[in-house]
Write a structure and sequence with these properties.
There is one protein chain. The protein is 80% helix and 0% strand. With 182 residues, it is mainly α.
């Protein structure tokens, strides 16, 4: 930029001449000039778009992480644990408030132990039953034993059953071959 007032008229004249030259070029080759301008704008805009894209991805990742922590409960868990540490530090003192904090922590601790035992029992009781893959319309010959079999055991039982059937057929075939017609 010009700092002297004598250079301003020359600079204005140069800018006007450059603008006029651009107009002449645009008039003589409108498609080529437009293409060049678009390419120039693309070159100038591409780095800005990449930077904005990086910032958006970073912000989206941070928002997703914060949302996950809130939904997961880890933020609330950390808050509770920090609060319990503060109460625990106060319970180490040998004054009236420290004694109250100590007794509160004792009650809370035993309550958590009881709750953990109950929750373990609830977890065991809520275990979904094992399901067998049985086809509709197929009669089950072994009843309850067939229902409790795992797919691997069921496949092994089917293979063994097929092997026995095959053995019986081969025995019958061999028996009929050994008989001589009378």
């Amino acid at each position: 930029m010009a700092t002297k007032t004598e250079e301003l008229p020359a600079q204005a004249a140069d800018a006007a001449t450059g603008a006029a030259a651009e107009v002449v070029n645009a008039a003589s080759d409108p498609v080529g000039t437009t293409t060049k301008q678009v390419r120039r704008l693309e070159r100038r805009g591409a780095p800005i778009n990449r930077q904005v894209g990086r910032q958006v991805r970073k912000a989206a990742g941070q928002a997703a992480e914060a949302t996950t922590k809130l939904i997961d409960g880890s933020v609330a868990e950390q808050l509770v644990i920090r609060s319990l540490h503060a109460v625990k530090a106060r319970a180490r003192r040998r004054d009236l408030v420290g004694e109250a904090a100590f007794r509160s922590l004792e009650l809370l601790h035993s309550g958590f132990g009881t709750a953990a035992k109950r929750l373990a029992r609830f977890q065991d009781a809520s275990q979904p039953p094992a399901r067998s893959e049985s086809r509709r319309g197929q009669t089950q010959t072994r009843g309850a034993r067939r229902r409790s079999e795992t797919p691997v055991r069921e496949a092994a039982a089917t293979t063994a059953s097929q092997a026995r059937t095959s053995a019986r057929r081969s025995t019958r075939t061999a028996a009929t071959r050994t008989r001589k017609p009378a």
